Amino acid sequence: MVMENRVCIVGLGVVEPGGNTRGVAHKELLFHATRRALDDAGIERELIGGAITASSDFTEGRSLSNQYTLDSIGGVMKPCDLRLAEDGMHALFAGYMEVMVDPGLLMVVAAVQKPSERVGRRNGFHKILSACLDPIYNRPICNTVPHAESLEAVFGAMDARAYMERSRVTEELLARVAVKNINNAAAASGEPATAVEDVLASSELAWPLRDLTMAREKDAACTLILTSEKNAGKLRKEPVFISGVGWSTEGSHLAARSYGMSPDTQKAAHQAYRMAGIRRPEKEIDLAEVSDWYAHRELIHVEALGLCDPGETVLRIEDGGFDREGPIPVNVSGGLLGKGNSLIVSGLLRVAEVARRIRGDAVDVTSRKVCVGLAHSWGGFISPTAGVAVLSKW
Amino acid sequence: MARKVAIVGVGMQKFEFCKVETIEEMVFDVARNALEDARLSKDDIDAVVTGSAVDAFCGIVNSDKVATDGAGGFLKPTMRNSTSGSSAVSTPILGYNHVASGMYDIVMVICYEKMSENASAQAVFNTVYDEAYVRPIGLNVPIQCGLEARAYLHRYGLTERQMAKVSVKNRGNAISNPYAQLPMKLTVDDVMASPYLSWPVKLLDTSPVTDGARAVILASEDVARELTDSPVWIRGTGRGADSVWFMGRANPDLGRLDYAYLAARQAYEMAGIKDPAVEIDYAEVYDPFTFKEMQHCEALGLCPEGGAGRMIDEGVSWKDGALPVNASGGLQGEGNPIGAGMSRLNWCYLQIQGKAGDCQVSKDVNTAVCNAWGGMYQYNAVMVIGRD
Amino acid sequence: MSKKKPEMTIGGTIQVDYEWSVGNAGERFFTEIKDHKRIMGARCRTCGRVMVPPRIFCEECFVDAIEWVEVEPKGTLVTFGDCYFSTDGKRLDEPWILGIVRLNGADGGLIHFIKEAKAEDLKIGMPMEIVFSDERKGHILDISHFRPVKESE
């Protein structure tokens, strides 16, 4: 693949997970994110050439959910395209391709989630999870497990067990991953630190998954503005380049999946690295934001992304290799465990986070200089689709 | 800059009210047919793009994921598009972007819908409407179309009999289509005598509930020239979208589809087409309701604005007319599995290739246009394809 | 392939419950209807259009500078539809009617039931008025329906 045109991020707007969203409609949340992104880029709506949102019908309770967000992304009477049931990062990929096709475009890519509108414990997420399953072989079983609410934890546990079996990662090490991310988020918001003991004492949902090693859903919205390098020169902000993108989906059938590993992430990373010309990711990438939906998934993903040799993971955690000051900081933002899982928005939030670090305008300016950063997203057990974006300063 | 993109194969299957096959089986069927048509194998496919409208129809959240294996997408890049009905054309446009951007050389585009398995398609459609302002009132599809059709006929002075002729034409055309669900030999009086759903829309002005899938394989120029001596190129793409607040938009008149005009303009500009009524040889126009074909013919410039009544009266859009529209039978005759309305594109391709069988029109077809419509009177997507 | 329904099927439902926020704009709008039977629109301070249903932002200018203005509970009929099917798909003997009414003083309007009139009495462009429900709780059904404005008025 020879790419003569380069795509970059020229504006970003975020409504962070965990803020107060009571009384704010999802259309309004997304408007705020988009308005911030336009202000960040220093442009107005007329200049928008096209807009893409990612959304998911059942997580929102609206069929054709993306039609509602069109107004909020400045998409009225524009060419618009919409992803359904994909991670927001797929909207970024679609936007990337649009700009490759037409370098003159200013593209808006965006997503919003408001899980707080779902009624019930853990926002009824287990009901959605079971509705994702094939209705013939899998769903009837999952609907009749004694405690359907723990469905997510049971899936997570199957995966975690498989991973721990092959990696020798212990429960305590998983707790350290959670502590790192929770404290990274706490550092930004000034909350008190959490200890490994706190994590191990949190309630066990399905061994080894605990309350604090499994991310909780949070409301959020995120909008990015993309354009070509040539176009970006006319705009206010220093562009952040998207030097590689890749995505991949694993198979349909639960029983035929690979547990404790992430071949979809591997494939996605392979494609993104090839585009970005990255041969030794562990040396070339300065910082990574990867999906830590569950503590053990961060480790699975870090390995699949080639940021750490699978044989060395235990050592790296013990040495603090993924800590804020380590050789490859992972989830400095706090990740999903620290900040909350905003499902469809999560992937885009990771991209926005890395872009901010590259620009140097992240909240905690003390962190080191980042030239090449990686953002990763993962769609969960039932929608095992991974996305990787490599961002760079030059 | 954009690379040239060709269609190198299509996958068809019969549209039916209720298919025995699961989504995965339906998708596999059309994917295999398309691979055979293009003389390719699954491993040649670089990426998969899927499209379907609303997950609540089939009752599977993220239903594209159960289609992944059947589409040959296992551990490949897959992406789903959904703009409701207009997914039928916005999905192949997304596929076009996959190739034109330089990211992939060969892309499988699959659209599917399984609508027969829910207890009430109407109840599903109600979940499409805004929860605070529209859903509690119980808006449904017949009335949604009645609102729009009434505004359209009022604005341009068109008649129910003209609408009825579209039904007669399309269901009659479907008799030649081996994949069609609802071929019928009708008269205008038959249509006029069918019961009203919402004035002016009658039962025979509508399209049926359908299960089905379609596939299209897209390829870059290099690959296409290796595979075939007569590639069919995607020459123009366009999309348009309007506000979800259909009762409070800048253009309040539901009779004029500003967003469809916008989509058509983009597609024609890209294709270098100045006078579509003359330069387009054949059209497959989105016709979930008879008046939608008429509105879309106008927005696509196949006749003057407000001229769709004369177009059907004068026989222009009939199979042997000067600009045949929906010789396949359209959604009315072939069936309307929402996303799989991509069939419109498949038929444009088949007509250009001269492979449309008994549906083949007698005139030469070098350039064809198709479109699709969806959302809360919101989206339109247009694609122009043709030979060198 | 067989045309009849498959012999073997598996039944099931997806029941997820939601409490959707009506948003900052909706809260004001529905509170005014509930407490004062007043219809409020949001005027965009940039382009001046008065949005009903109200939004906190104008989707054209894309700014959230709005001011609240009262609009008339009367307007003109943009279009209407009569329907012989209930929303769950059952055939009805008598049609029910929905209409879109553009409210005076607003650049938008509402979609609601039309009652106290038959379809043949209605014409696009005719004056209509809102009838409020006696019992109101901050919901779109606090409006009972639209009806044609009586001749004498």
Give a quick rundown of the structure.
The complex is a heterotrimer of chains A (394), B (388) and C (153). Chain A has helices at residues 26-41, 57-60, 88-101, 125-132, 139-143, 151-167, 171-189, 196-201, 229-232, 263-276, 281-284, 295-304, 313-318, 335-339, 346-359; strands spanning 7-15, 50-55, 80-84, 107-113, 204-206, 209-210, 220-228, 240-249, 287-289, 372-378, 385-392.
Structure, described:
The complex is a heterotrimer of chains A (394), B (388) and C (153). By secondary structure, chain A is α/β, with parallel strands linked by helices. Chain A has two domains: 1-114 and 219-237, Thiolase/Chalcone synthase (Peroxisomal Thiolase, Chain A, domain 1, 3-Layer(aba) Sandwich); 149-215 and 243-394, 3-Layer(aba) Sandwich (Peroxisomal Thiolase, Chain A, domain 1). In chain A, 37% of the residues lie in helices and 18% in strands. Chain A contains 15 helices and eleven strands. In chain A, the strands form two sheets. A nine-stranded mixed β-sheet of chain A has the order 3-2-4-7-1-8-11-10-9. A two-stranded antiparallel ribbon of chain A has the order 5-6. In chain A, helix 7 crosses helix 12 (295-304). The model of chain A has no long low-confidence stretch (mean pLDDT 91). By secondary structure, chain B is an alpha/beta fold. Chain B has a domain at 5-119 and 210-227: Peroxisomal Thiolase, Chain A, domain 1 (3-Layer(aba) Sandwich), CATH 3.40.47. In chain B, the strands form two sheets. Chain B has a nine-stranded mixed β-sheet with strand order 3-2-4-7-1-8-11-10-9. In chain B, strands 5-6 form a two-stranded antiparallel ribbon. In chain B, helix 7 (160-173) crosses helix 12 (290-299). The longest helix of chain B is centred in the N-terminal third of the chain and has 16 residues, at 23-38. Chain B is globular, with a radius of gyration of 19 Å. The mean pLDDT of chain B is 95. Chain C is mainly β and 153 residues long. Chain C has a single domain (23-148), classed as Nucleic acid-binding proteins (OB fold (Dihydrolipoamide Acetyltransferase, E2P)), CATH 2.40.50.140. In chain C, 9% of the residues lie in helices and 37% in strands. In chain C, the strands form two sheets. Chain C has a five-stranded antiparallel β-sheet, with no helix packed on it. Chain C has a three-stranded antiparallel β-sheet with strand order 2-1-3, covered by helices on one side. In chain C, strand 1 (39-44) and strand 2 (50-51) form a beta hairpin. The longest helix of chain C is centred in the N-terminal third of the chain and has 14 residues, at 23-36. The N and C termini of chain C lie far apart (64 Å). Classes of the chains: A alpha/beta (394), B alpha/beta (388), C mainly beta (153). Chains in contact: A-B, A-C, B-C. At the A-B interface, strand 3, helix 3, helix 4, strand 8 and helix 10 of A face helix 3, strand 3, helix 4, strand 8 and helix 10 of B.
